[in-house]
Amino acid sequence: MTDFLPASRTIRLTPRPALVLTTASLLGLAMFCWPLFAHPQPTAAAHTADAPFVFMATLPVLILVVLAELSRGGIDAKALALLGVLSAVNAGLRPLGAGTGGIELVFFLLVLAGRVFGPGFGFVLGSTSLFTSALLTAGVGPWLPFQMLASSLIGLGAGLLPRARGKAEIALLVAYGVFAAYFFGLLMSLWSWPFLAGDSAQLGFVAGAPLVENLHRFAVYTVLTSTLGWDTGRAITNAVAIVFLGPAILAVLRRAARRAAFQL
């Protein structure tokens, strides 16, 4: 029965860190949605200036959560070591698919780890995994903080999933893995849409246009450029990996949690 215990809390979110985490997540989502409400400059270079602001929203949250819980004894050296190991594994998995047809292996492990170790750990792991993999693959650019934040939200959500057991839990994680694939693609398309779509009459962002009109343009753009290819491939990869590898990996992660005394 211990394999079905609730998520471990390697980073226990007391009210203050939880409030900071929630606030940063909402501000981050607002930054993804800025094209729908703002009047950006028409060049891609202009958006590069936004990236540091996302770093300012993401990285302090990671530091605050870790330091606050360290000071309260909520996270110890074993938890930090586990975070480092999983970040390294995720970073090593990402280049294997090289993004070919949306085949990305980084997200299924993030979902499983967030499920086992809780939302705080999932949030931190999402950012550290993408940051580490970007260093390994020379993928550092203005898109990186957006990728980090989107991945952190996926890890956070995995830790908040309801309780389930056996096949029901795997089905729940598969459904969430599929959702996470499209969610990540949607957010990443949203931040780059005004610049990659250009002046296209059907797809392009129109500053100052009604919200419904821009939403329609974005929906057509993301379906044609992301959903039908990259996102669907990512969703299939997540589903297959969770079905075939999920039970074994969940058992390993939960055994590690018990031996490290992470369970509450």
From TrEMBL:
UniProt keyword Ubl conjugation, yes or no: no
Signal peptide location: none
Key word Transmembrane helix present: yes
Record key words, sorted: Membrane, Transmembrane, Transmembrane helix
Transmembrane segments: 18-37, 49-68, 105-131, 143-161, 173-193, 235-253
InterPro entries hit by this protein: ECF_substrate-spec_UCP037395
Positions in coiled-coil regions: none
Name the UniProt record assigns to this protein: ECF transporter S component
Organism name: Amycolatopsis eburnea
Phylogenetic classification of the source organism: Bacteria, Bacillati, Actinomycetota, Actinomycetes, Pseudonocardiales
